[in-house]
Amino acid sequence: MATVHPDRDGGDAELFVFLTALREHVEECTHVKPVIDASRRREGSTQSATHHDQADCVPFSGNLDFDVLTATARSVADDVCEPYASCLRLLEDIERASAWYTTLYRQQRRGATYKQLAAIGYAVGMTKRERVEWYRVCEAMPLSRRHAGHILSKLKGRAAA
């Protein structure tokens, strides 16, 4: 990695980005979370014995194209009622992140968390029934973590103004 770093003489920026993305992918694939025996958990613990990173997010394939998902979300905004449509319309100015922005890039390749979706629902005043429907809308597209983060950011910006 050090020999191809772009700041080094003879470094190769494209190769560095590729190797960084490859390393992160391998780390994600090889990272094994310990399974905790439910009988050994402390009383009152909220940790699930089968908790995984994707367990709390909408079903999502990292192979989905971000631009296609964004176009789908914009199209769905025309077909759903409020308050879902206005939330999805906040994606009008989102752009694909390149692999240079590793955090944003990874967020494009993972499903939105239900915590993010709930925060959006609370921010726009959705009822419990509306939030459940919001989850279903986001599962059907599906919405990425990057999309949900962008919507939340826009909603927070509106609240601050």
Global Rg: 19 Å
Low-pLDDT segments: 32-52
Structural class: mainly alpha
Estimated share of beta-strand residues: under 5%
Overall body shape: elongated
Termini, distance in Å?
43 Å
Oligomeric state of this protein: single chain
What's the count of strands?
0
Mean pLDDT: 80
Number of distinct helices: 7
Helix content: 40-55%
Question: How would you portray this structure in words?
Answer:
With 161 residues, this protein is mainly α. The protein has a domain at 53-160. It has helices at residues 13-30, 66-77, 84-89, 102-108, 114-123, 128-140, 145-160. The protein starts with 12 loop residues before the first helix and ends with a helix. Mean pLDDT is 80; it is low at 32-52.
Task: Supply the key terms.
51% helix; 161 residues; single chain; 7 helices; mainly alpha
SSE order and pairing:
Blueprint: H1 13-30, H2 66-77, H3 84-89, H4 102-108, H5 114-123, H6 128-140, H7 145-160
Helix pairs in contact: 5-6, 5-7
Summarize the structure.
With 161 residues, the chain is mainly α. It has helices at residues 13-30, 66-77, 84-89, 102-108, 114-123, 128-140, 145-160. It has a domain at 53-160.
